[in-house]
């Protein structure tokens, strides 16, 4: 699952490329981790939200221990109670330049970046909801990986070609579900020697 992505463009550039009105006063971090703010396009606005729906983790005695950001939404679980309402009525776009997966042996994993050739920004399918804990929060919709990702991971974010954006945002749940398929276009893969880092591992979250 995706637990790290990058947005190389400024807020103004993202708003222009995605034809969204910016309601963000400052740029968010270039690298986005679960539980941290990222840019989202919802209702025609470019907004800052927290990446991950809050999930309360409890101890053996029922006491709340911490909040976990559930940042990935598997397409085959969109009908579950945790995601259903957001999928039906609060779909959004997540603009990014590349997403990362960890490769290598345990303790020595490095970042592999995946992007779309000649596209400085592309859109990933997302859903969002208001939360009492963190304010507006979003999650990234995942599907089976495409052939280009063979050996890297068995799932990937739902990449939305420009001509399918309105179908995701405005279509019925059935229309939107049709888009939850592996990306069929070319992908650029950049393997690096950059450590996955402790911060990324500590911030990672699973899917619900």
Written overview of the protein:
The chain is mainly beta. It has one domain (5-55, 66-203): SOS response associated peptidase-like (hypothetical protein yedk fold, Alpha-Beta Complex), CATH 3.90.1680.10. Helix content is 14%, strand content 39%. The protein has five helices and 16 strands. Strands 2, 4, 5, 8, 9, 12, 13, 14 and 15 form a nine-stranded mixed sheet that branches. Strands 3-1-10-11-16 form a five-stranded antiparallel sheet, with no helix packed on it. A two-stranded antiparallel sheet has the order 6-7. The protein is globular and about 50 Å long. The N and C termini lie close together (12 Å). Residues 200-207 have low confidence and may be disordered.
Can you give me a brief rundown of this structure?
The chain is built from five helices and 16 strands. With 208 residues, it is mostly beta strands. It has a single domain, classed as SOS response associated peptidase-like (hypothetical protein yedk fold).
Write the topology of this structure.
Elements: E1 5-6, H1 11-17, E2 21-22, E3 31-32, E4 37-42, E5 45-51, E6 53-58, E7 64-70, E8 72-74, H2 84-89, E9 91-96, E10 98-103, E11 110-115, E12 122-129, E13 137-144, E14 155-157, E15 159-160, H3 165-170, H4 173-177, E16 188-195, H5 198-203
Parallel strand pairs: 2-5, 5-13, 8-13
Antiparallel strand pairs: 1-3, 1-10, 4-5, 6-7, 9-12, 10-11, 11-16, 12-13, 12-15, 13-14
């Amino acid at each position: 699952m995706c637990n790290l992505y990058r947005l190389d463009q400024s807020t103004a550039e993202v708003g222009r490329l995605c034809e969204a009105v910016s309601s963000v006063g400052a740029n968010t971090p270039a690298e986005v981790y679960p539980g941290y703010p990222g840019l989202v396009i919802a209702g025609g606005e470019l907004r800052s939200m927290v990446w991950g729906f809050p999930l309360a983790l409890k101890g053996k005695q029922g006491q709340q221990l911490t909040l976990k950001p559930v940042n990935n939404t598997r397409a085959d679980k969109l009908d579950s109670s945790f995601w259903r309402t957001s999928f039906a009525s609060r779909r959004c776009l997540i603009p990014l330049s590349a997403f990362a997966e960890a490769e290598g042996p345990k303790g020595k994993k490095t970042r592999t970046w995946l992007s779309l050739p000649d596209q400085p920004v592309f859109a990933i399918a997302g859903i969002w909801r208001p939360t009492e804990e963190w304010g507006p929060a979003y999650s990234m919709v995942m599907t089976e990986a495409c052939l280009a990702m063979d050996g890297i991971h068995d799932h990937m974010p739902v990449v939305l070609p420009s001509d399918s954006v309105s179908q995701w945002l405005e279509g019925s749940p059935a229309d939107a579900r049709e888009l939850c398929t592996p990306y069929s276009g070319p992908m650029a893969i950049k393997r690096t020697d950059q450590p996955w880092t402790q911060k990324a591992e500590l911030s990672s979250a699973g899917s619900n």
